[in-house]
Design goal:
The chain is α/β, with parallel strands linked by helices and about 375 residues long. The chain is about 60% helix and about 15% strand. The protein is elongated.
Length: about 375
Amino acid sequence: MKIAKIYGFDIKISLSTFLIVGLVGFYAANFYASIITGATIIDLIFVGLINGLVILGSILVHEIAHSVVAQKYGLKVSEIELYLFGGASKIEEEPKTPKSEILITIVGPLSSLILGGIFLLIVFGIPISLPAILAVTLLYSGISNIGLGLFNLLPAFPVDGGRILRAYLWSRRKDIISATKTASKIGSFFAYGLMAYGIIQIFLFGFLNGLWLIIIGSFLNNQTKQAYIQTVNELTLAKLNVKDMINMPRLEIPFNLTVEEALKHYFMIYKKDFFPVVRNGQIEGVLHIDDIKNIPIERRADFIVGYAMRSIKEFPSISDKDTGKEALRKLMRIQNKPNLVVVKDESDDYILGFIGEGELVSSLRFCRLNPEKC
């Protein structure tokens, strides 16, 4: 769900986020009950709710810090998403230098540590007596934020500490792929360590704590592998020209054909998901099989393709001079099928063809088999 827009990027929250709010609230309430004797159920609910919302706000501040500095270094930030395991700033490309990666990364943990320090300073540094509920809430929030900041400084790629490690290795080796590979291996080591410790926790200290560590470790391991693959793919596509990846349309459906005829003579014969639609020799749109599914069977014999297609203006476009990396960035922003980018001739805006997920996958496969040519 989109809840706000800050500095030009959307703030989205997943329903799974409320689970982490509930978990933090549960532990905060236990913390309060261990310090304050005779706490009522109302007190515990209040403390749990406030601490859950505070940690959610702290995670948001952490991610905003990443995003704002990334924008200062010319990187596109599409959105911030809050979910079960915290938050993620969706920065659409890798930092351009090791220095920029360090600065973009370090501000996140620093913001958490500063917030934690402020909460603890209020508790211990202000010479006035605070109500018990407020004092314990600030104390727990301070400890939680410092814990969040320190955890993110672990050298476990792709968390912040792992990205700082990668930037350091990158600056030393002058090779971002080699640095990412090493940082990813260390990230996997930490992930398996968390899972192993979680198993020990289950047998010695309790099921819930151990299960949570296993889930976090599994998630971290998956993210580590995905981050490495994403880095390699982006850098590979950055070397490829769109002109060499383009899918030239050899089969086109006439604008005035009926949907039933299009199904019979194109989709059923050539087994493709989409076809360009032409009128007067110009591509005006794209007809996808999903568009046909939305048309009742009894209407397809009379329904004209030109009124079922999606206009070419609905798709993002790039120049034939662009790189595969730019095509990937535009494809990632498309919410509905077909995931296509229109390729136009830079000189006269003529449509040359399309690039979709299939073209990207084929290009990456070619480069893996023929690295000397990419």
